[in-house]
UniProtKB/TrEMBL annotation:
Keywords: Membrane, Transmembrane, Transmembrane helix. This is HD domain protein. InterPro entries: HD/PDEase_dom (IPR003607), HD_domain (IPR006674), HDIG_dom (IPR006675), Metal-dep_PHydrolase_7TM_intra (IPR011621), PgpH_phosphodiesterase (IPR052722). The chain crosses the membrane at residues 44-60, 66-84, 100-118, 152-173, 179-195, 207-228, 234-255. Residues 287-443 form the HD/PDEase domain.
């Protein structure tokens, strides 16, 4: 008993729970009212003022006086403060990335510049056709372009808030009370139609849906304003259809440039990464076939569990396919690629073996940079092992070495998963690998294994730095069990065909 206490290697390791103390202290500070609620940070204020001035300038009618400009500036500034507070409350991760915030601000300005240009073109066009209504040409302005791009790059919530801000700005610009309603409906339909975009034709379909929505809302506006007749309806339909197809065309033109300029990912580019003819996928399937098959199963597990925890299934599948690409460098040192009876690690000491295993993360990040994989995939490659222990070689070192080794030398460098996506891939990766060790994979044994793996990862503190909840883990466990039960289902052994008796 005394020896156990003296030997530090035999003492149970306690996961770091310092984050709990910090959380409790923060909670107490908040409860005592010592933490001041700030509407907007001092360093953010100048950027909002500059953006508000720029937008006010773009929307300003130069026939009006300076008072109109300042009035527009005040309203736009308040709208942008609302937008900022909404992001801070619901999407704080975006605020930590300056690149994403710069992109969001650029999209507001870009949408207004494009819209001003098309408004001038359609005004001249409508006058040439002898259209007398002052609102008719505004039905063709492609303001839905901004929200459509936002929903593809950011998310649906941000696209809806963006739509609201943009439609209210349109009201300031066009000075027509019903136009914000028309703009918001078009933006809303555009965002909804691309909520689960998986191919380029979805963008064309979004343009059709926007055109149909615009036809109904423009007709309603004509009825409300008392301008409804066949002549007005005809031009309303024409401009509404032009609006929808202009949004689709501009989206096709702008997306590749935005992806390259800001190094961001859209569902369209993610679908292209799922192609098995991608150079990395082909190389993985040829040089590390076991890892390739493992990645496919991890993709199925992650995709099945993604929706229940609020992760994009497409991103989960792509990240799963590429999470182990680092094994291409030394495939024969990983058990799933070993075909012979003798392992490459038998002639190596445990520490060197663990270094080779751990190095696949660094190699994976390097390959991801070489092939220009999205940042979100690089993050998953780097985080999908967190700071977990390479248990097999650590235990082997404990048995073989006289001096107990440092546990830190046998741990992955991290960081731990920072997002639900990275945590999901970590769990799927560990569960799939462990499931291969089951001799008789019955549903009960599969359930026990999945539960054990998830608990071990949780108790090791690997999920401390992401927003995953216990409810999420429970839902993930159910999905994993269902998929694995399907993969390891029993088959009926067919009897040998009876041989005919020779008479």
């Amino acid at each position: 008993m005394k020896n156990m206490k003296d030997n530090p290697q035999l003492k149970p390791t306690t996961p770091d729970r310092s984050y709990l103390r910090k959380f409790i202290e923060k909670f107490k500070t908040h409860q005592n009212g010592k933490e001041r609620k700030i509407l907007i940070e001092r360093e953010t204020l100048p950027y909002l003022i500059i953006l508000s001035l720029l937008n006010a300038f773009l929307l300003h009618d130069f026939k009006s006086g300076i008072s109109s400009f300042f009035g527009s500036f005040i309203v736009i500034f308040l709208l942008l403060i609302f937008f900022y507070r909404d992001l801070k409350r619901y999407k704080p991760a975006y605020l930590k990335k300056k690149k994403m915030m710069a992109l969001l601000a650029s999209l507001i300005v870009f949408t207004l510049i494009i819209s001003r240009g098309f408004e001038h073109i359609f005004l001249v066009f409508s006058k040439g056709l002898g259209v007398e209504s002052i609102v008719m040409h505004t039905f063709g302005i492609p303001l839905a372009l901004g929200p459509v791009i936002v929903v593809l790059i950011f998310d649906f919530h941000t696209a809806i808030t963006f739509s609201l801000i943009l439609s209210l700005m349109a009201g300031i610009w066009l000075k027509t009370s019903l136009i914000p309603l028309y703009v918001f409906i078009g933006c809303l339909i555009g965002a909804f139609s691309l909520l689960k975009c998986k191919k380029r034709t979805d963008i064309i379909n979004a343009g059709i849906y926007i055109a149909l929505a615009n036809i109904f809302s423009s007709s309603a506006i004509l009825l409300i304003m008392g301008f409804f007749d066949l002549h007005s309806l005809y031009f309303a339909v024409v401009f509404s259809v032009i609006n929808g197809f202009t949004v689709s065309a501009l989206c096709f033109l702008c997306l590749p440039a935005i992806e390259r300029l800001f190094n961001v990912t859209t569902p369209v580019s993610l679908v292209e990464l799922l192609d098995i003819d991608h150079p990395l996928m082909k190389q993985l399937s040829v040089e590390a076939p076991g890892t390739y098959h493992h990645s496919m199963i991890v993709g199925s597990l992650a995709e099945a569990a993604s929706e229940v925890v609020g992760v994009n299934p497409l991103i989960a599948k792509v990240a799963s396919y590429y999470h182990d690409i680092g094994k291409i460098r030394m495939p024969e040192y990983f058990v799933e690629n070993q075909t012979g009876c003798i392992s490459k690690h038998e002639k190596l000491n445990p520490h060197l073996s663990s270094m080779i295993i751990i190095a696949h993360v660094k190699d994976g990040v390097e390959l991801a940079e070489e092939f220009n994989l999205p940042e979100i995939v690089k993050d998953v490659i780097q985080q999908h092992h967190g700071t977990t222990l390479v248990t097999y070689f650590y235990q082997k070192a404990l048995k073989e070495m006289e001096t107990p080794p440092s546990e830190q030398d046998y741990r992955y460098p991290g960081p731990k998963p920072q997002t639900k996506l990275a945590a999901l891939i970590m769990l799927a990766d560990a569960v799939e690998a462990a499931s291969r060790t089951l001799d008789d994979p019955t549903p009960a044994r599969i359930s026990g294994l999945v539960d054990k793996i998830i608990k071990n990862i949780f108790l090791d503190g690997q999920l401390d730095e992401c927003e995953i909840t216990l409810k999420d883990l429970s839902e993930i466990k159910k999905k994993f069990e269902y998929i694995l039960a399907g993969i390891f289902h029993r088959r009926i052994s067919y009897p040998e065909p009876a041989k005919e008796k020779i008479v």
